[in-house]
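Severity: low
Component: inverse-folding endpoint
Summary: output formatting inconsistent between runs
Steps to reproduce: submit the following structure tokens with default settings.
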């Protein structure tokens, strides 16, 4: 099997700011059908990741108190598991096997260049055979 994840990663993805209200971020994840979104600082560097699962605690609390509270920075996961753009498909599959994540930020030279979704890796493995 061959191929690198740079060939299947998504380059059109939602990114968030740590200061964004969590309610707004949860709405964006849902509206865009994304499992997760990278959180970037002012310089565009990856500082965290917000997943749909991360949004459940503030959503449940809002159901009790009738008000969403908090920011992306308070709910995001950090440090972030990442994968390099030149990693091979099998390595990516093994990483998804070992981790509960559904999406991983893809880095190249320390810069965020894409998002890799578990479903894309499975699709490529099916294509390859």
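Observed output (run 2 of 3):
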């Amino acid at each position: 099997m061959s191929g690198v994840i740079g060939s299947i990663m998504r380059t059109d993805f939602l990114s968030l700011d740590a200061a964004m209200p969590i309610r707004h971020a949860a709405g964006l994840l849902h509206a865009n059908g994304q499992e997760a979104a990278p959180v970037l600082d002012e310089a565009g560097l990856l500082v965290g990741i917000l997943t749909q699962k991360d949004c459940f605690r503030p959503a449940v609390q809002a159901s009790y108190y009738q008000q969403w509270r908090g920011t992306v920075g308070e709910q995001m996961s950090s440090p972030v598991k990442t994968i390099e753009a030149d990693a091979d498909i099998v390595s990516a599959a093994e990483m998804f096997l070992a981790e509960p994540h559904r999406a991983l930020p893809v880095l190249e030279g320390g810069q965020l260049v894409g998002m890799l979704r578990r479903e894309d890796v499975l699709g490529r493995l099916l294509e390859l055979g």
